Amino acid sequence: MPESDSGRQPGWREVFAVAAVAVAVVLGAAILTSLLPTGFQEFVFHTPIAILVLIVGTGWLLWRISRRPPGAPDSSDR
User: How many independent structural domains does the chain possess?
Assistant: First the structure.
């Protein structure tokens, strides 16, 4: 497998850690949503709020990636 410019590829442990965090966040959101009053639950389920959150989150992530100067160390290098 060719190495990236940083010289380090993520391993299975990192991939599984990210996957576990993603699953935990989704389960946490489902649990928190179930604890909301019925009116708020209807708002969450009947409006495109999840789509808006995904669009804003993706935009923020792309903005952050584009603002990193070339050759700048990642936070994982510290």
Answer: 1
| Blockwise average pLDDT, block size 10, the chain, 78 residues | 62 91 92 93 90 92 84 62
Q: Give the structural domain span for 55.
A: 12-68
pTM of this structure = 0.56
Separation CA 60–CA 32 (nearest Å): 24
Tell whether 5 is covered by a domain. Answer: no
Q: Is residue 42 part of a domain?
A: yes
How far is Cα 22 from Cα 28, in angstroms, rounded to an integer? Answer: 10
